[in-house]
Amino acid sequence: MNFLLIAVIVLGLIGLISAVILFGASKKFAVKEDERLAKVQEVLPGANCGGCGFPGCSGFADACVKGADAGSIDGLLCSVGGNDCMVKVADILGMTATQVEKKVAVVRCNGTCEKRPQIAFYDGRQTCANINACGVGETGCGYGCLGCGDCVAVCTQDAITINTETGLPEVDEDKCGACGACTIACPRNIIEIRKRGVKDRRVWVSCVNKDKGPVAKNNCTAACIGCSLCVKECAFDAIEVKDNCSYIDAEKCRLCRKCVEVCPTKAIKTANFPIKIIDN
Amino acid sequence: MKLKTFKIGGVHPHDNKLTAEKTTIAAPLPEKAYFLLSQHIGVPAKAVVKRGDKVKVGTLLAEAGGFVSAPIYSSVSGTVAKIDTVADASGYLRPAIIVDVEGDEWEENIDRSSKLEKLEDHPELTAEEIIQRVKNAGITGMGGAGFPTFIKLTPPPTAKAECVVINGVECEPYITADYRLMMEHTDEIMEGIKILMKAVNVSKAYIGIEANKQKAIDLFEMKAYIYPNIKIVGLKKRYPQGGEKQLVDACIRRQVPAPPAIPVDVGAIVQNVATVHAVYQAVMKNKPLLERYTTVTGKDIAEPKNYLVRIGTPISTLLEDCGGVPDKDVKILSGGPMMGRALASLETPVCKGTNAITVLSGAEAYREEETVCIRCGKCVSACPMGLEPYLLSALSEQIKPNLDRLEKEDITSCISCGCCQFTCPAHRPLLDVISIGKNKVMGAIRARNVKK
Q1: Could you confirm whether domain B11-27+107-366 is CATH 3.40.50.11540?
Q2: From the candidates A136, A179, A211, which should be mutated to test the interface with B, based on the most B CB atoms within 10 A?
Q3: What gap in Å lies between CA A142 and CA A178, rounded to an integer?
Q4: Model confidence over B111-124: pLDDT tens digits?
Q5: Domain range list for chain B
């Protein structure tokens, strides 16, 4: 017998034995993957933003499938995909999705460069977290936007940009999925996830300054000074002044915009209202 | 004498002790004094005065707000103007009591004579009595951290104090407040050490002094003949020797383990010389903590000086007395150049822990431009805690930092001395980034402990 033949037989035997072992193992340790999982993952946006509270879209899909098995997918929401996405998920799983209000990130600072006088100069690492840890920042307002774009860096949807003229972040409503990553990244908690409102119309106080009125005004001409004029004007009891700063409850607000007119520092902002045409 | 030092890490910043031989003078009284309610680590104090109240020097303004807290006494006489907010060293507004200064009237029970009271002459002073007086006087660590001193004097039952280690190192560049105090009040400090030794019931004390203060070493050596249990330890000049863990290592060759261990776990109770002086005054003279030694310094300051300053004096008052802020780009620090905080407001008052106002001017006021890490490892050899700053900063920089990993890499051991940043040839803001990471990890640890 020549060596060639021996080699072929030995290797052939090894191959045969290995094949039998592998076959047995694949049967014994087979993992049956739920086909719904792949389907659900397909309809999710795939941004892996973590806004749902699960590690990435696959984690969320897993939670949905488990939820469906347990009988309910209530409370699970892909904030980026919104209702449309959840309806699709529910269809795949044979459940019904509860409709939730669409939300959007809102920047609650209106202290543009010209409204906030610079009192110091910072030349360290240009991130908001660093400035915030160093101290009050370049302006006197200890609550306002630091303008370095930590929110931009975490946004998986490219929905936030820093406006170079004002130095403030701006949210692109079409792209924002309200995942809330920016609210966590902002060291000053300026960004709030608010409901989009009827026809995307919103009214909010664009300031979070808790200093007393004169101090706040001194540091920023656009600051909320806690004067309570808006509270008196509001017919729906939607506005509350707490710690020298006014807050509009989006649930109660009826979008009448009376508060916007009375605010002495123009700290209350609106979005998507038709522009009023004033006749002379 | 053979000089000692700590084992790992450390850097050698330039001394710049401009004011070393300038005798301390009393700082001018301000028109308004601002008493921040949180001048210490722990719960802020609670105000006990109200608007319009008349106060004297030594009147209680605010009582301790909890266990880890300290009362605050007025350092001026006058009328309480209001209880409002004032910017602290970070620039953020914090609650403070504001007093309009009128005259200089002291509480009668404070002994203002300079007679040296000896511990032997006061047998009524038991350990408990001493600790109680220290607590009532509102004394906190005066080296900078501001931890209430009475807590340090009552170690947990698991630890046993064996010696007192006194910090006369003053390793930060520029600052000379502790040096002047040591030169001018040597006897009081020696008595203060004896008081501390009695309070914690130990028979051994060490005073660590760096070699650049040879006069102080000589003076204390001379005094030590009368105080046989107090040993003077000459130390090599090296930063951060004033950190308590480094000082314990240098003086008695014991290493404090990673947090939550504290120096008393290896038998040492560490106190700053300024704290010792304050303890002496509180126990013997019934004088609460209301003034402190502070250096106002900087290369472009017309007359840098050492002050005995009333706590609550706005920093602007001191700077004006020194000839004003130089007409250049300046960075004004509360503290020294290594660990000081850049101030955003000059109305910030002097606090219990303000050991210096350092004014860096011209090019020194700016940071060098940051470049990429060149993996030289200098930060690792400079770190006095044996950490890896390049790694900690890289981990902390991530958008979602891995807090478990950071904790495993011992980020909580960081003492924020800034050696890594000082030594980095790429001028990377290592400490700034690590501090943020450390805060996040500490937050996570606290949250975990609350859950338990």
Answers
A1: yes
A2: A136
A3: 26
A4: 888 888 888 888 88
A5: 11-27+107-366, 378-451
